[in-house]
């Protein structure tokens, strides 16, 4: 299927501001202001004429056209979130896997207790008493190492309590190895659990087979009941990796929600170590059409007072409302690191065994020099073509791992999605402003 969406896919127009319906987003500050129809029409025309024409029009409206700032002084924060890659192996064989089948391109291996304990000690010891930290259990498939997860949680709780530090936990899993006693453990410790699924049975089985080539959907569906039974104490959501083979997102979201998920988030596959499953070219137009269709469904439900599982629009609306401009797309290397089975630190869980994201080891601790250099090089002020993009402070330059390995094939899609988000923000702010108070 070929989809042409010139009105949705967004080329960069101005580095100063962007108009969506009767809202203007100031590019450098991420502040949003309302306009009259006449003001919006005039400013849109000025932006199309170039920044030299746009700056005076913005000034006439009382809006300062703040230029792109200089790169900020790099601040290294204590690590507040740590991904423990407890299992560098997996019982599934998803062709697009960022972890190359779970092993990150090496031999199948698991983290031992010495590594996990050392990583937890360094995390807790670097945290000021009274603070909080988060530990994410990742893989591969982390449930292959359930005994280590349990031992790590018990130990981290004890170490945290001794220093008045609150420890929170999360787990990303394919869902095939969850037992009732696991769900009870997650509930007891208030885990956030994300289950990776790519659609209904036919779609998921094609994209997420096991190592013998058999589908995994039925096993996941069978294992969900204990997690769903503890939804009052487990923050449960599903995550969809979007490839060219599951772009019918309305159906994908509906099929996954039918399993009992109240939250379904989608994430495009842009960088694949195997070369399989990555979106290219016209795929992004289809992705944007599918996401806006899901967004429309979410908006209809929300305005009618009903819940809807599509999480992406709710996320972007919350970010727009907060109005916090970014210099980076996420906390990787800043206050979030990953530790692999060998005890090596990386910028995030996607950089495990990747020299581009190497950040020290347990023996010497996180390498703050490497962290600072990484963050300084990746700040949005230094990225091309971010400097001239109106969306730069919303996306923060994108995922570091994807940009370093795949470049920026998705920028028009990202701008299109954020433009849609701005329009949705204006609509929801006018029709149901209390929604934002409930998200605070």
TrEMBL record:
Its cofactor is [4Fe-4S] cluster. Pfam families: Radical_SAM. Keywords: Iron, Iron-sulfur, Metal-binding, S-adenosyl-L-methionine. InterPro entries: 4Fe4S-binding_SPASM_dom, Aldolase_TIM, rSAM, rSAM_sf, Sulphatase_maturase_rSAM. The keyword Isomerase does not apply. Residues 76-300 form the Radical SAM core domain. The keyword Metal-binding applies. Coiled coil: none annotated. NCBIfam families: rSAM_more_4Fe4S. This is Radical SAM core domain-containing protein. It comes from Sulfitobacter pacificus.
């Amino acid at each position: 299927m070929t989809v042409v969406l010139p009105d949705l896919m967004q080329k960069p127009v101005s580095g100063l501001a962007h108009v969506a319906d009767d809202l203007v987003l100031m590019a450098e500050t991420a502040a949003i202001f309302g306009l009259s129809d006449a003001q919006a029409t005039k400013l849109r025309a000025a932006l199309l004429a170039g920044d030299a024409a746009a700056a005076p029009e913005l000034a006439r409206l009382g809006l300062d056209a703040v230029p792109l700032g200089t790169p900020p002084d790099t601040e290294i924060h204590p690590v507040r979130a740590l991904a423990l890659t407890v299992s560098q192996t997996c019982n599934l064989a998803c062709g697009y896997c960022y972890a190359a089948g779970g092993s990150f391109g090496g031999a199948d291996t698991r983290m031992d207790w010495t590594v996990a304990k050392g990583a937890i000690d360094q995390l807790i010891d670097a945290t000021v008493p009274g603070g909080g930290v988060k530990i994410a259990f990742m893989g591969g498939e982390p449930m292959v190492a359930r005994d280590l997860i349990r031992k790590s949680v018990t130990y981290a709780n004890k170490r945290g309590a001794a220093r008045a530090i609150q420890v929170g936990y999360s787990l990303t899993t394919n869902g095939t190895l969850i037992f009732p006693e696991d769900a009870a453990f997650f509930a007891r410790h208030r885990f956030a659990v994300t289950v990776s699924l790519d659609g209904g049975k036919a779609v998921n089985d094609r994209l997420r087979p096991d190592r013998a080539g058999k589908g995994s959907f039925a096993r996941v569906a069978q294992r969900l009941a204990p997690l769903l039974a503890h939804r009052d104490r487990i923050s449960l959501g599903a995550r969809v990796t979007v490839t060219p083979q599951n772009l019918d997102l309305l159906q994908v979201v509906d099929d996954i929600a039918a399993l009992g998920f109240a939250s379904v988030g989608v994430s495009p596959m842009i960088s694949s170590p195997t070369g399989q499953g990555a979106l290219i070219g016209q795929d992004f137009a289809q992705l944007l059409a599918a996401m806006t269709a899901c967004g429309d469904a979410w908006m209809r439900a929300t305005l009618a007072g009903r819940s809807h599982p599509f999480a992406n629009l709710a996320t972007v609306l919350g970010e727009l409302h907060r109005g916090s401009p970014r210099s980076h797309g996420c906390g990787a290397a800043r206050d979030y690191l990953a530790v692999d089975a060998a005890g090596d630190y990386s910028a995030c869980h996607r950089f495990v065994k990747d020299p581009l994201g190497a950040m020290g080891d347990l023996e010497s601790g996180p390498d703050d020099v490497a962290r600072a250099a990484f963050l300084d090089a990746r700040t949005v002020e230094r990225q091309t073509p971010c400097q001239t993009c109106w969306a730069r402070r919303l996306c923060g330059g994108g995922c570091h791992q994807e940009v370093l390995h795949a470049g920026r094939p998705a920028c028009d899609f990202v701008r299109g999605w954020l433009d849609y988000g701005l329009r949705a923000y204006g609509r929801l702010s006018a029709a149901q402003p209390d929604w934002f108070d409930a998200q605070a």
